[in-house]
Every structure is written in structure tokens, then in C-alpha cells.
């Protein structure tokens, strides 16, 4: 058994762990990074990047099949070569992973340990069966893993998760996707557009991360128009049959069955805490077994009188499981583990999220649900809205679908948040998150320049509507002449 002593031990070499490693090293050279699996990060290997590559191929197929309304006809067949699609996805994915690996290679060998770590007491980790590490402070950055209900296991070898999709050499004929959350929606729509027969099964009517019922209703209509999706499905059976997996479900009061090549479980993820031996520490755990922690310092809560020497960052803390948040949290946790006990509050940014469906779903600032809970009973916030079906630039490009809803505070006139489904949502929510973080009022935002004809003019209409409802501006004028046609 190798015995090692260090100032800071980082458990997990993903995005949060690598950020924590760098930040802790600014305080001490005695930092150990422990990685159980392959380096490369979830984001680059099986997450953000390969999913966006698959979506990019799907968009190319979709555009080339939908040129006729412009009077542009592709005579002949648009052919999707599944092998070439997957080859590009994997080739480009490997390139992104390669960049991460180059960074990992620069970390000196004596600062890296391979193996799965587990606490055996407050200050000691067992790594596989080969090493024990005693450390003054720790950062837990072990990420998350997919979860699914037990009855999915009836699909046996045809049950797959996102990781498996990015291992394919060719596209299958059909996939039943369970979970129209972020992963299911992105992958399901992309597969559909690449010619794979899909059916997307949800539960309780939820689609993506949307909390605003008006946007949810839009999403439901838009996606139902394009592919088979039931966000509130009644699935009555899952069975492994000779040629795949048979799913039985109710539709319009009838029981139907359909056979698919695979069942893709995209029904959520859970924090990787179960094998960490946290029961051997004094940490206070929530019902999911995740340590309680401060979102500002990433310091965990302990039963001991002394402040905790353990920090937790990234997906494993179940707070905001997104890449940029994992990176921020890694830096904050690593910095605090390095400087402990003189710890600091880190900078948390305005919440921002994007689903790369088409149309995209975007959210910035506080969600509708959060605002309803915080301000709903006092009539303290108002909602402005624009329907994108008539929006000039979107219509020109035949991207005129969806709605934008913006939320503002009565009295202060500040923008609080937004939810949307529609064109260029990935860009619009950035603009909104940036203005919310600066604490701008809707009036101040409306003083900014707006070009013509652009999708941002649609956002301006929603903001004008909001200002009028907050009684801080005139009624929004329908077809305002000084705005430019279709603004
Ligand atoms: C399909 C998919 C698409 C996504 N798309 C986006 C997107 O478009 N935009 C976005 O912002 N986010 C996206 N995400 C989320 C994003 O990938 C995660 O938020 C982010 O990767 C989390 O980073 P992390 O460092 O917390 O975890 P990870 O990168 O998973 O790192 C955790 C590491 O810990 C290691 N580990 C686990 N247990 C132990 C142990 N006991 N000992 C040692 N090592 C251990 C693991 O091997 C792993 O390498 C996506 C996720 C998925 C799955
Ligand atoms: N574009 C992005 O930023 C992006 C992309 C992918 C993933 N992610 C991150 O990864 C996280 C995990 O994504 P996810 O899609 O696995 O989780 P999710 O929580 O977003 O979605 C899970 C979905 O599965 C549904 N569901 C649960 N049980 C079900 C069942 N038995 N049958 C059918 N549906 C069921 C839920 O209602 C929900 O809609 C996301 O929260 C997000 O933070 C981000």
C-alpha cells in the first residue's frame, strides 16, 4: 500500500476537479488529483460536445430537406450516411478530448493518482486497493451519472444511455427515448432529423427545464408537430423481443405497441456520492446522500465544531449541473481548499441555460417558478411577452416559431428573468443574463441600440410589453411604424 500525504486532495478529474486543481495549486504545490475513470471530462467525452456535434449533423439534414418554401428545390434525394455522421461526431469529439488531455499531461505525474477514492475517515482516502492518502483538505468533484426506473432493465442489452450513443459506428433504425428533459430532447430530435424513427416518452408533462406554463405549452405544440412525443405518456410494458425492445403505451385511449432497436434512458442524473464513503466522515448529508454545502464557498456542512475542510463542486453537489457552473465551482472550491481556513465567497453568475433543440429553449435569471414562489403572492412581478410567429427577421428565415416571456419587478422596473422557446434563444438569453447581472432596468435595456431587421427586435417587443405592464412605459404599439417592418 502506497501511503501519501498532501495539503489538498481533489477527487475527480473532470471540469470541476481540473479547475479546483489549478486554483488550489496557486496556494500550495502539495495538491493531488485523483481520477478513477478516463481523463477527458464528461462534457468533452459524452456530454456537451458530442451532443452538439450530432445536433449539427441533424441541422444540416433538416435544412437541406426544408428548402422548398424558399422556392429552392433539391432534385434528388438528401441522403444521411449514418456511418459518416458518427465518424465526424467521434472524430471531432476526440479532438476536443485531446485538448483536455494535453492540459492533463501538463500536470506533473507526482500530482496525479489513478483510481477510485473513498473516505475511510475524516482525513484519509483509500484509492482502489493501492494507495492511502492523508490530506488536510479535500475537494469532492465526482460528477453525476444517469439514473432510470428499474423497469427499464426489462430492455436488457437494448437499454442504453447517452454515453452509448456516442460509441455508435452507425445510426440505428429506431430508438425509444425516455425523458424529454434536456438530454432526451436534444438527442431525440437530432436522431429524428437524421432519419432515425423515434418516440419520446415523458412523465407529468414536463419538457426540458421550462417552468413557465406558457412556454411549456408552446414547446409541447412545436415538438408534437415535428415528431412523436408524449410528455405525459402512460407506458404499460417494456419487453426485450427478438428484434429489439417492445414498448407498449396508451395513445388516445388505445393500447399500442412499437418495437425499437434501443431504449435510451434520459430520465435524469444523480450525484456520484454513493461510493465515496461519506458515512465515514462527519458531513451532514441531505436525503439524496449529498453533503449540505454553501453555494458561495462550496464548503460542506459538518457535525464537528470546527469548520469543514471538505469542499464540493460541479454536478456532484446537484446544484446547477451545467458546464460553466462546474468550472466556476471548481475554481471557488479549489481556491478555498488552498487558502483554508481563510475562505472566501466566490462569484456566482446570473443563471443561464440553453437547450440546443430547434427551436432552442433558453432561460436567464430567475425562472417563472422561482418568481411565483418568491413574489407571486404579493403581485410584485409582471410578465411581458412576444409571439415570434409574426416577428420580421424570424419570418424571413422561416424560423418564426415560439414565444419569449420576460419577467420584471414592480416598483424597481428591474429585469428579473426570462424563459423562451424560439430562434436564436442561445444568444438572447446571454444578452438578458448579462443585463440582469448588471442590475439594469427594462427602461435602461430599451435605451440600447437595436438593429433592423434582427431577432432582437422581437425581444424588444417583449420588453416594451413588460414595461407597459409595470406601468413604466406606454402600451406596446402593434406594428409600430418607427420600429421597421415586422419588428
Ligand atoms: C449528454 C450531455 C450533454 C450535456 N450538454 C451540456 C451543454 O450543452 N452545456 C452545459 O453547460 N452542460 C452540458 N452537460 C452537463 C455538463 O457536461 C456537466 O455539468 C459537467 O460536465 C460536469 O462536470 P463535473 O466536473 O462536475 O463532472 P465530470 O466531468 O463528470 O467529472 C467527474 C469525474 O470524477 C471522476 N470520479 C467519479 N467518482 C470518482 C471517485 N470516487 N474517485 C475518483 N474519481 C472519480 C469521474 O471519472 C469523472 O472523470 C451535458 C451533460 C450530458 C450528459
Ligand atoms: N444544453 C445543455 O445545457 C444540457 C444538455 C444536456 C444535459 N445537460 C445537463 O444534464 C442534466 C441532466 O439531463 P437529463 O436530461 O438527464 O435530466 P433532466 O432532469 O433535464 O430530464 C429528465 C427528464 O426525464 C423525465 N422522466 C423522469 N422519469 C421518467 C420516466 N420514468 N419516464 C419518462 N420520463 C421520465 C423527467 O420528467 C424529465 O423531463 C440537465 O439537468 C442539464 O443540467 C445540459
Fraction of residues in H or I helices: 25-40%
Question: How confident overall, as mean pLDDT?
Answer: 96
Structural class: alpha/beta
| Principal-axes shape call | globular
InterPro entries: FAD/NAD-bd_sf (IPR036188), FAD/NAD-binding_dom (IPR023753), FAD/NAD-linked_Rdtase_dimer_sf (IPR016156), Mn/Fe_SOD_N_sf (IPR036324), Pyr_nuc-diS_OxRdtase (IPR001100), Pyr_nucl-diS_OxRdtase_dimer (IPR004099)
Cofactor: FAD
GO molecular function: flavin adenine dinucleotide binding; NAD(P)H dehydrogenase (quinone) activity
Protein name: Dihydrolipoyl dehydrogenase
List keywords for this structure.
flavoprotein, nucleotide-binding, NAD, binds nicotinamide-adenine-dinucleotide, binds flavin-adenine dinucleotide, 25% strand, 3 domains, FAD/NAD(P)-binding domain, 5-stranded parallel β-sheet, flavin adenine dinucleotide binding
Q: What can you tell me about this protein's structure?
A:
The protein is an alpha/beta fold. It has helices at residues 15-25, 42-46, 48-65, 82-105, 162-165, 182-193, 213-226, 323-339, 368-375, 392-396, 425-437, 442-446, 456-469; strands spanning 2-11, 31-35, 112-114, 117-121, 124-127, 131-140, 144-146, 159-160, 174-178, 197-201, 228-230, 234-241, 244-251, 254-260, 262-265, 269-271, 310-312, 352-355, 360-365, 381-387, 403-409, 415-422. Helix 1 runs parallel beside helix 8 and helix 3 packs parallel to helix 6 (182-193). The model has no long low-confidence stretch (mean pLDDT 96). Residues 7-330 form the FAD/NAD(P)-binding domain. NAD(+) binds at residues 179-186, 268.
